[in-house]
Design goal:
Strand content: 15-25%
Shape: elongated
Order of helices and strands: HEHEEHHEEEEEHE
Strand order of the largest sheet: 1-8-9
Length: 195
């Protein structure tokens, strides 16, 4: 996901083989929804090196502080050491998984992130897809909420640079109408098509 609906970089990467569209979702709809079968949090990617360093330092300091206060208990037996190590590793993964190389900042990316529980990680609903770099794992998710059964909170659709934009606009209107979302706005990108 991305903060903006009309970035040339995103159209080139994710829409080069088809008619690209960007779907705008209501952020609140993602933040306050229970997901099935896994729980997700909506998080922004962190691109600035100084912020990344600050996050890493805070995680390490927090882990060391916890260890200093509970040293006697943690070192009491092997299982206590394993429990502390697993919880600390989970914290590191959670806090550092949002970091991306600064050169990707133009993407302004957000992700639905699965929190890493302590201990071995067994994900339900894991799937795989082919990509130019190899096999990529992904998770299917459905909103599990009485207020939003089987429907994502779509606000609008933007059609990217393409041939025959008016035909594409009518097609998107037809799709939205068939799914009882005729009230959603459809926008056209003002960026030129790359032929």
């Amino acid at each position: 996901m991305c903060e903006e609906n009309n970035l040339l970089n995103q159209w080139r990467v994710y829409g080069k083989d088809t008619v690209p569209i960007s779907i705008e979702f209501a952020t609140r709809g993602f933040m306050f929804v229970n997901w099935s079968p896994n729980d997700f949090d909506l998080v922004p990617m962190v691109y600035h090196a100084s912020k990344q360093t600050e996050i890493v330092n805070n995680v390490i300091e927090g882990g060391l502080e916890y260890f200093r206060h509970h040293r006697k208990y943690i070192l009491a037996n092997h299982q206590s050491q394993v429990d502390f190590s697993q919880k600390f590793a989970s914290l590191c993964i959670d806090c550092c998984s949002t970091m991306k190389h600064p050169q990707f900042e133009v993407e302004k990316e957000w992700r639905l992130a699965v929190r890493w529980p302590p201990g071995p990680r067994y994900l339900r609903g894991q799937n795989y897809r082919a990509s130019p770099i190899g096999i990529v794992p992904y998770l299917k998710a459905r909103p599990d909420d009485q207020n939003m059964p089987d429907r994502l909170p779509i606000k609008s659709v933007t059609i990217g640079p393409c041939a025959h934009p008016e035909i594409q606009r009518q097609t998107i209107h037809d799709i939205l109408y068939q799914h009882n979302m005729a009230d959603k706005e459809v926008h056209m990108s003002d960026l030129p098509i790359r032929v």
